[in-house]
Amino acid sequence: LPADSHRARPASSLIKVQSASGPYSVSVGAGLLSRAGTHPLLRDRPCFLVTSPHILGLHGEALLKSFPRAQRPVVLLVPPGERYKSLATIERLATELARAGAHRDAMLIPLGGGVITDLTGFLAAIYQRGVDYISLPTTLLAQVDAAIGGKTGVNLSEGKNLLGSIHPPRAVLADTTTLATLSPREFRAGLFECIKCALIRDPALLSLLTRHRESILAPASHRDPKLLERVILASIRVKASIVARDEHESGERMLLNFGHTFAHALESALNYRTLLHGEAVAYGMLAALHLSAICGLLSADQAAEAGSFILSCGPLPRFKLSPEEVIAAMSRDKKHTASSQRFILLSSLGHAHVISGLPPSRIRAAVRAMLATGMKS
Ligand SMILES: NC(=O)c1ccc[n+]([C@@H]2O[C@H](COP(=O)([O-])OP(=O)(O)OC[C@H]3O[C@@H](n4cnc5c(N)ncnc54)[C@H](O)[C@@H]3O)[C@@H](O)[C@H]2O)c1
Ligand SMILES: [Zn+2]
User: What is the DSSP string of 89-139?
Assistant: First the structure.
């Protein structure tokens, strides 16, 4: 793998993300929550914190104490879980905002994982035709993925994220100390999205991850905060650079879906149980690496090297599915109708391309290779 160029560069903790509605800054670092309440964008604005009881208990005190006494936010609570990422929750929260007297100058503040971030972002997009929000993501997945890029939304029972809007935040504060209370499994699931960023765009990040894998995966009390910060910053830079050029996913943004066609099929075939999204992405990347190799784009050695690195960041839960079940789920996926099935493939570790028109036999072979790894014996 290429040498690590991150070491020479001082870790900046601020990234500017360009969006059609103006740039916003993403700060990454330890202790940001305990300074958040005095953020210049919050001055003289009525603030509404949206979070879950559990996260409020873990991280709310430091945040609430950071607000000037006269400006403590109103707290709106959402139970944890993907099933609360719904229109019913939006309606309830909007009603609570209205009853609390929230107007156009309201500032919403989601504190939580991707569910809270997506939900609050969508609420901000439609409450009084749009209010501002500042994201405080508390899972690794939300810090490197859900909080970046402006996609917001909720699920319908017919499918995930079927309602939504592009409504970027005014700022993102990713406090790395919040990750200490995340379960190791949720942490690893988020790390697979960092690995995805490295594989599609950043060989230096891949090198950093492979060389420091043990330290990154160590229990939270043994983690090196600066190292984690570098991983998060580099992953955000990959996503930010891609969405800056393609906010509405007409082209380049598709690269962020590396492994996701297979991952979405696995998640849906397993009824969204068994695997966390990041774990499904890990399996999906194994399939995409295999596909890249059998299409002659990526060398078999590089595919094997990346595949074993992904597996070394496990354990991944095992499951039981047939290739037919996965293929059927792939053809049901809204983004991948049979006529225009597009895949993100690698030509080398760190370089991704959108490829369409692949023969079904190769896709089957990739699914079989993925299932051979994931199958419960
Ligand atoms: N908008 C986007 O671009 C985008 C991108 C990727 C994912 N998403 C969405 O993100 C969601 C998944 O996000 P997620 O993986 O963060 O899941 P999540 O929000 O459900 O969080 C996972 C669990 O961790 C808990 N938690 C959160 N922070 C914690 C902390 N610091 N300590 C302890 N527990 C904590 C939560 O309460 C929850 O139980 C999905 O709905 C997905 O669609 C959106
Ligand atoms: Zn993902």
Answer: HHHHHHHHHHHTT--TT-EEEEEESHHHHHHHHHHHHHGGG--EEEEEE-S
